[in-house]
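ARCHIVE CARD
Drawer: 12
Card no.: 0347
Subject: one protein chain, sequence and derived structure
Cross-reference: see card 0346
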Amino acid sequence: MLTVLYSAKGAPGVTSTALALAAVWPRPVVLLEADPAGGDLAYRCRGASGGAVASSPNLLGFAAATRGDRESTLQEWSQPLACGVQVVVGVQLPAQARGIGDLWRRLAVTAASADVDVIADIGRLGHDAATMPLLVSADVRVPVMASAVESILHTRAHLLDVTVAGGRTVPLMVGPGRSAAADCRDVDDVLTQAGVIAAPAAHLPLDHPGLAALQGGASPTGRGRSSQLVRGARTAAEHLLATAGLEVH
């Protein structure tokens, strides 16, 4: 299963959401950091050794490997973070992402056919996004938005403008936990009235201490398991899997 997270505009927390979902995902999963503007996790997170995240293996190596005849897997190009997430570290500069060129298509095919689930963070999506092949190949597409009217409306405009056959769309709002139910209803109402076909919206609570703990290496099954972020991410992950019709194993 390939799940692609992105935003229509701004920075509502796509990378943080992808990290939180990968940390609690109840099936084998690899987090693919595929934002063409540059990855953040190497700067935010601790590596499994407790120090900095290694510069390689990374997305550039994985993309290059898809060019050859030998079959390459995402696992070969991933590395563990201290919190337990397996991640394919993204590019450092937009120029590196442009250098991947047509290999984005091969990369998308490999991610969609992987023998583990893949959560791909492609950042902000534009009309000319090089990462469009990942969006097209996704089983579940997750537009992430902030709990602000303009963010919801930008997402609505995007979903009306960009039509992708196949897969399911599950909007996800990042906002205060106390208003989660009302915020999700607002999103569902706005999209339904516009004629957008999407599953009911998911929600992830704003929890800066919980995010800092996860980035610092707190295990979602250990001392970090009771944070609002981890609890909310578990609920969101279950919703995404149920929308795709998949069972937890």
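Annotation on reverse: The first helix runs from residue 14 to 24. The chain has a mean pLDDT of 92.
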